[in-house]
Each structure stands twice: as structure tokens, then as C-alpha cells.
Amino acid sequence: MKLSVIIPTYNEQDNIFTVTELIDKALQHVNYEIIFVDDSSDNTPDVLSQVAKVNAHVRYEHRIDERGLGTAVVRGFELAQGDVLAIMDADLQHPPEMLNTMLEEIQKGIDVVVPSRFIPGGSDGGLSLLRKIISAGARYMARLALHSVRQSTDPTSGFFMIRREVIAGVILRPIGWKILIEILARGNYKSIIEIPYAFRSRSAGESKMSVQEQWNYIKHISLLVYDSPIDRRFILFALVGLSGVMVNMAVYIVAVRFGLTVTLAGFISALIALLSNFILNDRITWSDSKNSGWLFRASKYLITSLIGIGIDVGILTFLDHNVHIHYVMANLIGIFVATAWNYLLSNYWTWHTAKRKVLITSSEQVSKRV
Ligand code: GDD
Ligand code: MN
Questions:
Q1: For a substitution probing ligand 1, which of 89, 206, 221 has the most ligand atoms within 8 Å of its CB?
Q2: Distances from the Cα of 97 to the Cαs of 42, 94, 198, in angstroms?
């Protein structure tokens, strides 16, 4: 088995020697190569060429017309000759000694190994408080939005190891930095494992993280949601639900202005919103799942929604009477549970098709933590 350690670099002239030395030391008994993909504007290319001259394990490519951490790693995948691919940063925030432990897991048959800062035994000591908060927000955002990332505690890590088969034949289009999320969302793997590690502070130079990169991250997650049928469906369902609230309000206001009682106006507007939600979900959210007549689907949707209203009212009444939380909070919790109910019933009953079964099976295979 050959291991390729891929290191993206941008202005890391003071770290190249040390990181290479420490990797050499850690991997004495391993067949490996180190590949730097460099976009620097400082002296890093000179340092790299010196190191590559004296160290047969080292190769590098200096890109002139391209920049970006994610695409640098993808380029590294193309250059790599190994059956196993490791990605790490140049600044020693990722301890090179970990490579051995990671490789052991791969040799046991695991497909993806991710050192995590956020499981017992790990720590994220290398980040400032502000970065910690942003980093936590970014992680939860990805885990909420993307089904395939949900089981990973450190999906924004720049440190991981995979078998080459995980990305073989897969088109990777990372926007910005988070190549691991791209691989978790698009790669082919059956097993993923996390090992705790302590993230260190930077050895030399400074971080290249920027507001632009945070914006890229949001674009990246959005694209992955868009490309994932399951994740896209829930977002569309939520948007349709929001549009229903607006339809309901608009009809309600017009009806009251025309002299209807609020009760009648409320009833009519709720029914029209339900109808509009049904049509939008039928045309957009589940446009690919039409297994029965529309009247049949509409009836199922109506039944589900009516029970949903029952769930909401039941929960908010219970919370208001027994738990004594604020009445708005009680309704919010009710809405939350009822939305989950509506989504699940819509997905598995109202618009259920054989085609959907296939989608669910393949996504279940996607991430199984061992
Ligand atoms: N080729 C290339 N091109 N490399 C880049 C670029 C680029 O445009 N931008 C950054 N890099 C390289 C850096 O030289 C470094 O080796 C690595 O990518 C990470 O950059 P840092 O500037 O050190 O990032 P960080 O420490 O703020 O964040 C790192 O740690 C976080 C926590 O694990 C990154 O790995 C993040 O992705 C990660 O979330
Ligand atoms: Mn760093």
C-alpha cells in the first residue's frame, strides 16, 4: 500500500522544512510520498524546489493561474500515486504523528478516517474564541443541511485520510476550503471513523482564513444541498411551508376587509394555504414522485395536515398547561414537531414511490460510523 500525503500551501515558506521532516520521521516504516500543491506568492516555491531536490519522497506543483485550497487538494489527488490519500495543512496544526494511527484504521478496512477535535480526547486549542464560535456555527450548519455530513463531528477539518476508491470516478467541485465536506457528500464509502486529536496552534506564518472563504463555504453547502435529492427536498418543503404562511395571511386580511368574521376568514385562508402548499409540494418538492392520482395525493395531504394541526394544538396546549413556558414558545415547539410529522408522512406516504426507496437505501449506505 502506498500513501500519498497531500499538502496545499499558500505562503508557507517557514513551515515546509519542518513539516517535511516530521512526516519523514513519522512514516519511516511506510511507503509514502509527499505532494505539495502550491499557490504561493512568497518564497515557498523556492523552498519546495530545494526540498524536492534532496528528498526523494517530495514532489510539488506550483500553480500560477489558479488559487484555492479545495481545488489545490483536487489537483493533489490527480498527481498522487498512492492507494491511500491523506490531506493535511502545512503549518503543523495537524500533528504528523497521527498519520500512522490513521493508516492503521485504513489497513483495518475503513474507507474514511477523520481526526476530530470534538470527540472525547480531542481539543481545538489552536483557534481563537471568535474562530471557535464561527467554526461551531459552520459545523452545525453543514450537519443540519446535509444528510451525509450529519454523523461527522468535525466535517470542516482539513485533516483526513481516504482510500483512493472513495473518490474514484467522482467529480469533485469544491468551492473554497472544505474539501472533506465535498468528499462526505459526493464520495463512495461505507465506513468512516473519527479519532480524537489535539489541534495545535500555528507553527509559523499566519492563517489565510477570510470573510470571502466564509461566504464560499455558504455557497458550497448550498450547491451540495442542491445536488442532493434528499436534502433539497426538506429545504423545498420548508420554503413551501413559509410561502403557505404568507398565502394564509394575505387571504385572511383580504377576507376580513371584505367583512367576513375572523373565524370564517381564518378557516378559508387556512384551507387555501393548504391547497397552495399541496400544489407547490406536488409540482416542486416531490415533482419526481407521482405514483397515484392527484385526488388521492391531495386527500392524503389533507389528512396528514389536519393531524399535523392536531399535533401542534395538542402540544402547545399541553406545554401551556403543564410546563408553563411562554405561549409563543409553546406554539413554536408545536409547529416544529408538526412540521417534522408533515414532512415524514409526505415523504413516506403521500408521495411515496419505488424510486424514492432507492434514494434512501443509497444514502443510508453512505455514512456508517464504525
Ligand atoms: N494551495 C493553496 N491555495 N493552499 C492554501 C490556500 C490556497 O489558496 N489557502 C490556504 N492554503 C493552505 C495553507 O497554506 C495551509 O497549509 C492550509 O491550506 C490551511 O490554511 P490555514 O491558513 O492554516 O487555515 P486555518 O488554520 O485558518 O484553518 C485550517 O484549520 C481548520 C480547522 O481544522 C483549515 O484546514 C481549515 O479548513 C480547517 O477548518
Ligand atoms: Mn492553519
A1: 89
A2: 28, 9, 12
Q: Is 193 helix (H, G, I), strand (E, B) or coil?
A: strand
C-alpha cell at 337: 414537531
Site to probe by mutation for ligand 1, drawn from 40, 67, 77, 209 as the one with most ligand atoms within 8 Å of Cβ, is: 209
- Give strand ranges (E) for 39-190: 58-62, 84-87, 112-116, 160-163
Rounded to an integer, what distance in angstroms lies between the CA atom of residue 292 and that of residue 290?
A: 6
Phi, psi of 337 (to 5 degrees): -65, -40
Please tell me if the CB atom of residue 182 comes closer than 6 angstroms to any atom of ligand 1: no
- List, by residue range, all CATH 3.90.550.10 domains of the chain: 3-227
CA 10 – ligand 1 centroid, Å:
8
* R_g of the chain computed on alpha carbons: 26
- Looking at the CA of 128, name the nearest ligand: 1
pTM higher than 0.70 = yes
- What is the CATH superfamily name and number for domain 3-227? Spore Coat Polysaccharide Biosynthesis Protein SpsA; Chain A (3.90.550.10)
Instruction: Check: CB of residue 20 under 8 Å from CB of residue 91.
Output: no
Neighbour tally for 235: CB within 10 Å: 15
pLDDT band at 33 (very low <50, low <70, confident <90, very high): very high
Between the CA of 249 and the centroid of ligand 2 the distance, in Å, is: 49
263 band by pLDDT with thresholds 50, 70 and 90: confident
* Residue 290 neighbours by CB distance under 10 Å: 13
pLDDT confidence band for 1 (50 / 70 / 90): very high
Closest to 75 in 3D by CA, of 35, 115, 48, 102: 35
Reading the block at residue 234, the C-alpha cell is 426538506
